[in-house]
Write a structure and sequence with these properties.
With about 300 residues, the protein is α/β, with parallel strands linked by helices. It is built from 13 helices and twelve strands. The strands form four sheets. A five-stranded mixed sheet has the order 6-7-8-10-12, with helices on both faces. The chain has a three-stranded antiparallel sheet with strand order 3-5-4, with helices on both faces. It is globular and about 65 Å long. It starts with a helix and ends with a strand.
Length: about 300
Amino acid sequence: MDSKEKVIQTIRMRGPVIPAQIAKVIGTDILMASAILSELVSKNILKISHVKFGSTPLYYLPGQESRLQDFAKNLHEKEKRVYDLLMQKKILRDKIAEPVVRVALRNIKDFAIPLQVKINDNVEIFWKWYLITNEEASRIIKETIKFDKPKKDVKPVQETITRKEQEKPKEEIKKEELKRVMPKEEIKKEEKKIFVDKTAEDKFLSEVKRFFEKSNINLIEQKIVKKNSDLDLVIEVPSAVGSLTYYCKAKSKKRISDSDLSSAFVQGQIKKLPVLFLTKGELTKKAKEMLSKEFKNIKIKKI
């Protein structure tokens, strides 16, 4: 059995370990043990924790996530309280959480998984306990937000459109039939919807692209979240050490809130990219406070 196999076998039996423990098992120094563990992580054979034993992260096999709870006692006092709260509640809503709780949730990355949930026209962040399934999380979130939704009138059954009718090609609808059920003004609007290229028409995207050109920034991906006001982008930014890839959130609004920054922060984490936030407006007082304390890795640029 070579050193790597011995390391894997040891972790399979013991659970999460630190390099010093592995060094004793394979009879080497901590530096060499750390190198072996890092190599196994790079090959996706092992995982590395955010929670630390002293000042050292833990190495563990996929499937041993539940055993990280044995090391939760090493969390800071405030983080441990939020850890206990999340374990009990299973789901926490970022929007209504106290600032200290929101900060702690972003620090206990092993145990708190961010979920982006679209509610009506807004996107909110919910945090799930890391051991519950997405299906269970979805059920709890639905229970949480069901009282938020505005009441809608229930349409008669005969007014609902069947799936077959939705899939029916528009060419099969005769022009005369269309005129009978739709005024001329609405026909014109409908025709425009069919032929308009929304991307080409988005003025804010064009403005952002001009900014990128002036700054020698290369645009890799683009998505219009909301026309003329909200963009999701992936970019390459030139630097002294070469081009750096960023997730870029661009918003055209007068006031940028802490929720805007929080959403961009989570997207950056999901994409594993640093965040550049472009705006035409000003940050709220709370957003500025969060930026200096919680979102230090977000770079703000006004255009």
